[in-house]
Write a structure and sequence with these properties.
It is built from eight helices and eleven strands. Strands 2-1-3-4-5 form a five-stranded parallel sheet, sandwiched between helices.
């Protein structure tokens, strides 16, 4: 199994490479986000271990780029920031797991092995509604031969709509599901994401629309 490690602390990076190699992995190490993106884009790695905080592109930005390219290599984030918000952001970006620093090396190896076992039984997780398909693994909306990458929030919103095509979903339901009960985010953010989704759906020519029903909410339906 071949692992790519991205960590900007040179001492920790050297330690991690040695750790994986001593546990029968092949490991490459890089110390910045740009190199992590270049190496991981080759698709030759079985797993990725990324620090979130790196110079240039951070780990989350790198993973978003990779998922946008359709690269579904399993990824685990290392982070000194243990706030729930950063964990959710990483998982929204397409990460499979995270491990806050400081960590036990035995736990890191165990988590990576578990992550790679899940990869061995991986099949694309596809959600279909009419003529449009949502790839839950790559965060892409697909129509025919065309596809478009979605952000984490756009993906969650599209998933909600596609799970209940033809059913009106209220702004309150969307806010609760995506931003949580106690969010301070203004409800206008829903309209912004709906607008972005509409543009992306139109860009691939999918014959579906997100219609606003005044006083009720949003509904995904085929274009009549």
């Amino acid at each position: 199994m071949k692992i790519l490690i991205a960590e900007d602390d040179p001492r920790l990076l050297k330690t991690l490479v040695h750790l994986f190699e001593s546990n029968n992995f092949s490991a490459d190490g890089v110390d910045n986000g740009e190199d992590a993106l270049d190496y991981a884009s080759t698709g030759e790695y079985d797993g990725l271990v990324f620090d979130i905080m790196m110079p240039g592109m951070d780990g989350i930005e790198v993973l978003k780029e990779l998922r946008g390219k359709g690269i579904s290599t399993p990824a685990l984030f290392l982070t000194a920031r243990t706030e729930i918000e950063q964990r959710v952001e990483g998982l929204d970006a397409g990460a499979d797991d995270y491990l806050p620093k400081p960590f036990a090396t035995s736990e890191l190896i165990a988590r990576v092995r578990a992550m790679l076992r899940r990869k061995d039984t991986f099949t694309p997780d596809l959600l279909e509604a009419g003529s449009i398909t949502l790839n839950r693994s790559t965060y892409q909306a697909i129509y025919g031969e065309k596809s478009i990458s979605l952000s984490g929030k756009e993906f969650q919103l599209m998933e909600m709509l596609m799970q209940r095509p033809g059913v009106v979903i209220t702004t309150e339901q969307i806010m609760t599901h995506i931003w949580g009960w106690e969010t301070d985010v203004d409800t206008s953010v829903v309209w912004v994401h709906i607008s972005n989704l509409r543009k992306k759906i139109d860009s691939i020519g999918a014959p579906v629309q997100i219609r606003f029903q005044r006083g009720a909410g949003y509904v995904l339906e085929d274009k009549g």
